[in-house]
Amino acid sequence: MPAQLRVLMVDDDPFTRSTLASSLQILGCFVLAAESVSMALRLMRNFAPENAPNVALLDLDLGEGPTGLDLAQSLREEYPHLGIVVLSTYVDPRLLGVNQPDLPQGAIYLVKNSVVSPQILGDALTQAVENMEDGAQKKSKANVPAVALGDLSDKQVEMMRLVAAGHSNAEIARRQWMTEAAVEKAITRLSKKLELTGSKEQNQRVLIANTFRQYSGSVNVRTSS
Hints:
The protein is of the alpha/beta class. It contains eight helices and five strands; from the N terminus they run E-H-E-H-E-H-E-E-H-H-H-H-H.
């Protein structure tokens, strides 16, 4: 690991914040922990540029309100050379909702179940910093891994999210400006795309919801549109 990493770490869960902070400190990082977007921005602005964190570790799902991607975009606009790592249980960031900002250029998207040791996290943070050095950000693309949902369109991912959140066909139709008949057909097509087969014991909606939870790390599903 190069010169000491100064990490702005943002997570709304106290236990996760404590665990991540301890892991990073073992690696020799300076850690500044925040629980919200507003707190993170306030802490960053308290530093002189030469002493500010040089990399941010952001949870994707920060509860109701702005997401980690919203914060990543704000940080990149205000601090153009800041390295960024977005950490999430979601294998695909679209599972949180498709109407959100893209991952900033040069940023790294890291799935939590792939972090089997603190060193993997440290390596990702180091790479994020290096991505922003010497103008590399101009040619480095956002690092989002290929995932199992790569074949699904944004509309299909959103349909999966809404079904998993427990919305009825009528409510999904209202939110998506569709007819209920069109929603039924879309759910059937989604089931086939996911290779799910319903039965008397397990209908299509249950199977879709279970699949969503599998790919989202069994976390709560946001109910907002």
